[in-house]
Write a structure and sequence with these properties.
This protein has seven helices and 15 strands. By secondary structure, the chain is an alpha/beta fold. The strands form four sheets. A six-stranded mixed β-sheet has the order 9-8-10-11-12-13. The protein starts with 9 loop residues before the first strand and ends in a 14-residue tail after the last strand.
Amino acid sequence: MALADFPAAMARSARTVWFDGRADSAGTRDIPVETPVNIVYGDAPFAVMMTTPKDLEDFAYGFSFTEGVIAGASDIQGVELQSQERGLELRITLAPGLAPRAVSRERNTAGRTGCGLCGIDQLDALPMALVRPHTRHPVELSAIRRGLDALEQRQALNRLTHAVHAAAWCTASGEIVAVREDVGRHNALDKLLGALLRAGHAAADGFLLITSRCSFEMVEKAAVYGASTIVAISAPTSLAVERAVLHGMTLLAVARRDSALVFHGAEFVHAGAAAVGANAAVPAGEGVT
């Protein structure tokens, strides 16, 4: 199957509206497609992930990158999509010499939509990106607001289904470079990072914007890419904050057009002439345009 011939990412399902204790009307509704995708390197199966069958070539690159299979886009020579009886198979051809790395971490459990750790059977196998020095750039609240405004218009699948996550990369001014959507929050992020890798875009002074809760694997994936700032619309988990501290990453969450909570890196968040306090709300009017 050509990569351009992906199955539809959206389906229509029959539904009945219940209102005031009774069935009011029948009809249909748009819902996102969720399907198992078997990721195979050469002839070696690696993982089965539940994904939305959209932007799967980006997913192949991003997943391979955040799993540590590849170091860059040039490490992949080709991606082929095959239809199977119970799902899809994403066959990835690696550059010579990389095949042994692809199966070095054995996964033996299918990846569920809401889980980024399926197949891990020891605590010391918990993913951790290399902690490396990087330049911390400030982020302006006006840029976050601009990114949030633009993101709402760029979530084409979510506008129709109200059931998928999105991940976006924004420039320092809040201009969105790329957006990817998926039923799984970490799949959306992998798709985004894959798209950025394929386009040759390196993490610089921009920021990552996600619509989901900020769990630790989201921070880890961002750290693999080299992002220094992550902005989440929902709240973070305790381990996400710990990993943000470990990686020296600025973390904002519960981000809205007129407010945000800064959980780490408050000195890099600019609200007009002054920075905002750690783990404190930034109210409307303080430098937000």
